[in-house]
Amino acid sequence: MTTTQTDWADLAAALADHLTSTGDLHDPAWAAAIAATPRHQLVPTAYRQQPDGTWAALDTAGADLNLAYSTTTLVTELDDTGQPVSSSTKPDLMVRMLELLDIHDGHRVLEIGTGTGYNAALLAHRLGDDHVHSVDLDPALVETARARLAALGRQPRLAARDGADGWPKHAPYDRIIATCSVPRIPWTWAEQTAPGALLLADLKIGSGAGNLVLLHRHPDRLEGRFTGRWAGFLPMRHDTTTQAPNPSARAEQVGEHTTTAPAEPWNTHRELWLLAALTLPSDLRRGYTLNPDTRTPDAATLTATDGSWCHITLGDAPRRVREGGPTPLWEHVETAWQVWNDNGRPGWERFGLTVTSDAHILWLDRPDNAFHTLSR
Ligand SMILES: C[S@@+](CC[C@H](N)C(=O)[O-])C[C@H]1O[C@@H](n2cnc3c(N)ncnc32)[C@H](O)[C@@H]1O
Question: pLDDT (tens digit, 9 = 90+) per residue, 13-23?
Answer without folding.
Answer: 999 999 999 99
